[in-house]
């Protein structure tokens, strides 16, 4: 019973815009105090799902449960969720402190108390020095932290993040994702994070939900989703996989699980097409029967101890348990 | 020739000169002439170039001046309040309640249709409506709301302000609508996410962010009303006066120096009003 206190659950949640179905009866149970990433290409329904959980989009069908309570038709602020917007949506006319204290002001908390609480939140995101600045006097990373503080001051059970890192430059993105992860661990609440970057999802998430065409393609622990994709879409979207059609069906095999041997020892015969040096690794693409391309990611020592060139005939080999059958 | 072309200072001067020329000839020079004339001496039958303060002394010595300036401010203030309330409501409705851009544009254009006719015609068309035996009075009588015609509908301050509001509300709608359209819709979602209700969103988010538009509209309305003379004359039936009418009367009597002095004082007053308003709101972002 205790374990379900902060559980967020989607029960056949559907979103329709006229005749188009943006989210098609998805079911998912989010584990409490976990970091979950909703991952998928644009238009897959991940943002609509997040906005329905937040209450900024109505649910056409189904229910959203938080801590056993149906929240699907409550006002955003009554749900126990808080949202961090993609472009942060900071109020440009309010100082950092007033932005953070906004929800307290709406509740009618007096000025001294809300300032004290806002400063407490700002110290959590390490921004106390900039408390009196206006949002457009801050850098992107700082603005993001203000948005985070503003969302967290409502003491949500679930924090919803809509592509929070997409507006940052690559260097800052990597630093901020570390901070997000750390903050989630400290607060012990659930984070639901929408992204289209698989590297971001892998780096952050306890659990990844891959969406495509309004449905969940696969959900599970980050390592399981990456290592054992269930569908062709997941294998290709997560990257690092070869999708091969064999007589027994469609299979995914990780590029770094493919070994190069001589033709006699290999399971498949192949012709080297291209060799690309990538620093720590060498990426070798080869053509196998049926005009299919297979990429093998080899460590540079392994490759240069027995180098191959385009046109060479080689054998490909992998462990049987690295071969994952795809259902679609 | 090449040397000339390389002279970037010269190019710069040449580039600003057309605008500078236009402003100099059509703005600075006329105002300068008005200032000069305002110091001339006038008698019943002649105007003599001079430099004396008589015109100003007469202007500030006459109680009529103060009444008329007070009247001008009264018209400007009441019109401003009415146009602001109506203009803000219309702009708010267009910007936040109409969902599709096509409808927003269509309804916005609808607002401008009355402006396809001239100011004077729109103003005069109120006369048969508001008159003693006009449409308004006869309708009210036939409904039994009143027993005899209401006298203050036409040729009164009410009529003047009604005409001003009718003429100038669009000048309030346009800048406010423009500012509102630039408000990021996610700000409103963020406010709702923080638990704000409709009134709180309006007061804490929309109004503060719309202030520059309100200020631009205010400048339009205040300057137009303070400089107007024809509306006051027609709609008050020559029973009320504002500064514009004072000037136009002087001109009709060929008292150019006196008219110039009044004009200069009006100009300074308007500049002072706008200068004060601009201290409160930064409109640079809108320009």
Short description:
By secondary structure, chain A is of the alpha+beta class. Chain A has ten helices and 18 strands. Chain A folds into two domains: about 10-225, P-loop containing nucleotide triphosphate hydrolases (Rossmann fold); about 240-325, RNA polymerase II/Efflux pump adaptor protein, barrel-sandwich hybrid domain (OB fold (Dihydrolipoamide Acetyltransferase, E2P)).
SSE map:
The complex is a heterodimer of chains A (328) and B (287).
Chain A: E1 8-17, E2 20-30, E3 35-39, H1 46-54, E4 61-66, E5 69-70, E6 81-84, H2 96-100, H3 102-107, H4 111-124, H5 140-152, E7 158-162, H6 170-187, E8 190-195, H7 198-204, E9 207-212, E10 215-221, H8 222-227, H9 232-238, E11 241-246, E12 249-254, E13 259-261, E14 268-277, E15 281-288, E16 292-299, H10 300-305, E17 313-317, E18 324-325
Parallel strand pairs in A: 3-8, 3-9, 6-7, 7-8
Antiparallel strand pairs in A: 1-2, 1-4, 4-5, 9-10, 11-12, 12-18, 13-17, 14-15, 14-17, 15-16
Helix pairs in contact in A: 4-5
Chain B: H1 2-6, H2 8-38, E1 41-42, E2 47-48, H3 54-61, H4 63-97, H5 101-112, H6 119-124, H7 126-130, H8 135-143, H9 157-181, H10 185-193, H11 198-227, H12 230-235, H13 243-252, H14 256-280
Antiparallel strand pairs in B: 1-2
One letter per element, helices H and strands E, the order of chain A comes to: EEEHEEEHHHHEHEHEEHHEEEEEEHEE
Q: What would CATH call the homologous superfamily of chain B?
A: MetI-like
C-alpha termini separation of chain A? 37 Å
Chain-averaged pLDDT of chain A: 90
What are the secondary-structure elements of chain B, in order, as H or E?
A: HHEEHHHHHHHHHHHH
Oligomer state of the chains in this structure: heterodimer
What is the total number of structural domains of chain B?
1
Query: Biggest interface, and residues per chain?
Result: A-B, 25 and 17 residues
Q: Helical percent range of chain B? A: over 70%
Level-2 CATH architecture of chain B: Orthogonal Bundle
Stated plainly, the CATH topology of chain B is called MetI-like fold
What strand order characterises the main sheet of chain A?
Answer: 6-7-8-3-9-10
The CATH C-level name of the largest domain in chain A is Alpha Beta
**Quick one: how many beta strands of chain A?**
18
Structural class of chain A: alpha+beta
């Amino acid at each position: 019973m205790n374990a379900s206190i902060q559980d967020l659950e989607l029960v056949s949640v559907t979103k329709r815009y006229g005749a188009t179905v943006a989210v098609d009866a998805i079911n998912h149970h989010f584990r409490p105090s976990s970091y979950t990433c909703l991952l998928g290409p644009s238009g897959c329904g991940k943002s609509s799902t997040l906005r329905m959980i937040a209450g900024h989009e109505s649910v056409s069908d189904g229910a959203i449960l938080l801590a056993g309570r149906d929240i699907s038709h409550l006002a955003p602020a009554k749900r126990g969720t808080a949202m961090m917007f993609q472009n942060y949506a900071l109020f440009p006319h309010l100082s950092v402190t007033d932005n953070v204290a906004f929800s307290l002001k709406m509740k009618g908390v007096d000025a001294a108390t809300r300032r004290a609480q806002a400063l407490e939140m700002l110290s959590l995101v390490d921004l106390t020095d900039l408390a009196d600045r206006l949002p457009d006097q801050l850098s992107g990373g700082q603005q993001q932290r203000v948005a985070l503080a503003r969302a967290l001051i409502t003491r949500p059970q679930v924090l919803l993040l809509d592509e929070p890192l997409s507006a940052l430059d690559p260097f800052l993105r990597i630093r901020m994702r570390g901070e997000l992860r750390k903050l989630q661990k400290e607060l012990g609440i659930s984070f639901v994070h929408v992204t289209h970057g698989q590297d971001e999802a892998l780096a952050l998430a306890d659990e990844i939900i891959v969406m495509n065409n309004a449905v969940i393609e696969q959900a599970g622990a980050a390592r399981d989703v990456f290592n054992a994709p269930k569908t062709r879409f997941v294998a290709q979207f997560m990257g690092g996989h070869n999708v091969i059609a064999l007589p027994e069906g469609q299979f995914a095999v990780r590029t770094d699980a493919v070994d190069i041997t001589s033709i006699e020892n290999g399971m498949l015969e192949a012709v080297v097409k291209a060799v690309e040096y990538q620093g720590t690794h060498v990426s070798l693409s080869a053509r196998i029967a049926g005009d299919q391309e297979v990429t093998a990611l080899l460590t540079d020592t392994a490759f240069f101890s027995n180098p191959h060139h385009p046109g060479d005939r080689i054998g490909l080999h992998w462990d049987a348990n690295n071969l994952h059958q795809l259902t679609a | 020739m090449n040397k000339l072309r390389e002279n970037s200072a010269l190019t710069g001067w040449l580039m600003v000169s057309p605008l500078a020329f236009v402003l100099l000839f059509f703005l600075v020079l006329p105002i300068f002439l008005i200032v000069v004339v305002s110091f001339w001496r006038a008698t019943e039958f002649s105007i003599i170039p001079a430099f004396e303060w008589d015109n100003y002394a007469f202007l500030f010595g006459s109680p009529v001046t103060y009444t008329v300036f007070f009247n001008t401010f009264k018209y400007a203030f009441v019109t401003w309040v009415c146009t602001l309330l109506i203009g803000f409501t219309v702009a708010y409705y267009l910007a936040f309640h109409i969902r599709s851009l096509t409808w927003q544009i269509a309804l916005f254009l609808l607002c401008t249709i009355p402006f396809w006719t001239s100011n004077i015609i729109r103003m005069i068309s109120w006369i048969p409506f508001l008159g003693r035996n006009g449409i308004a009075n006869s309708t009210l009588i036939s409904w039994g709301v009143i027993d005899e015609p209401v006298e203050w509908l036409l040729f009164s301050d009410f009529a003047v302000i009604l005409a001003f509001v009718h003429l100038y509300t669009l000048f309030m709608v346009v800048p406010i609508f423009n500012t509102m359209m630039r408000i990021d819709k996610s700000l409103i979602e963020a406010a709702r996410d923080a638990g704000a209700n409709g009134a709180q969103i309006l007061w804490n988010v929309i109004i503060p962010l719309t202030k520059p538009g309100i200020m631009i509209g205010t400048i339009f309305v205040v300057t137009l009303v303070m400089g107007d003379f024809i509306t006051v004359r027609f709609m008050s039936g020559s029973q009320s006066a504002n500064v514009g009418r004072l000037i136009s009367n002087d001109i009709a009597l060929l008292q150019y120096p006196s008219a110039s002095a009044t004009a200069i004082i009006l100009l300074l007053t308007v500049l002072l009003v706008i200068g004060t308003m601009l201290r409160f709101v930064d409109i640079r972002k809108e320009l």
